[in-house]
TrEMBL record:
This is Histidine phosphatase family protein. One of its GO terms (cellular component) is cytoplasm. CDD domains: HP_PGM_like (cd07067). Pfam families: His_Phos_1. One of its GO terms (molecular function) is phosphatase activity. It comes from the Bacteria.
Length: 189
């Protein structure tokens, strides 16, 4: 069974950092874009994919310019939709409701938001659509964690054990098949 490398790069720092920025289309800072370009420097990839949100897509376009690659935009790589909580700092959200969400995000999603399993299914579909060649996806922390759940079998609690700050690069060796799987081969933050 053949494998290929999938690099997942979290977007750089956006305006309004420190809030739940799911579907909010926060602009990236110039320092955030530069951090992503620096992190991607030297990657041997043949494909470049990005979330459609500008905090990821603007970084992807800058990376594409430096690597000489076109960018494919795929909204399935978006961050989790936090519904009514979108754009809020966690201190602005009822502690009990937030605690229930972190404990069981499928049973207690944000009001009018996305469930964890919906995010995992969406990201799994994006992964399934990838060509089997070294690829870089510029995406979001939640989508990266959903990829770990889908490919490595981690549950929602285990994926939070990974620190994925802005411009973090998670590299996976991915195998196709009836049940795709992956091995973590690098994490730089």
């Amino acid at each position: 069974m053949s494998s290929f490398t999938l690099h997942l790069l979290r977007h750089g720092e956006p305006e309004g950092a420190g809030r739940l920025l799911g579907r909010s289309d926060a602009r990236p800072t110039s320092a955030g874009i530069a951090a992503c370009v620096e992190r991607a420097c030297g990657l041997a990839v043949h494909g470049l994919i990005s979330s459609d949100l500008q905090r990821a897509s603007k970084a992807a376009r800058a990376i594409g310019g430096s690597l000489g690659l076109p960018v494919t935009i795929d909204p399935r790589w978006r961050e989790m939709d936090f519904g009514a909580w979108d754009g809020l700092a966690t201190t602005q959200i009822d502690n009990a409701a937030l605690g229930r969400f972190w404990t069981n995000p499928d049973a207690n999603p944000p009001p009018d938001g996305e469930t964890w399993s919906t995010l995992v299914k969406r990201v799994t579909a994006a992964i399934d659509a990838l060509p089997s060649r070294p690829t870089l996806a510029v995406t979001h922390g939640g989508a990266m964690r959903a990829a770990l759940a889908a490919l490595c079998g981690f549950d929602h609690r285990q994926v939070w054990a990974f620190d994925l700050p802005y411009a973090a690069l998670l590299s996976l060796k991915l195998w196709r098949g009836d049940a795709p799987s992956a091995q973590i081969i690098g994490l730089r933050s």
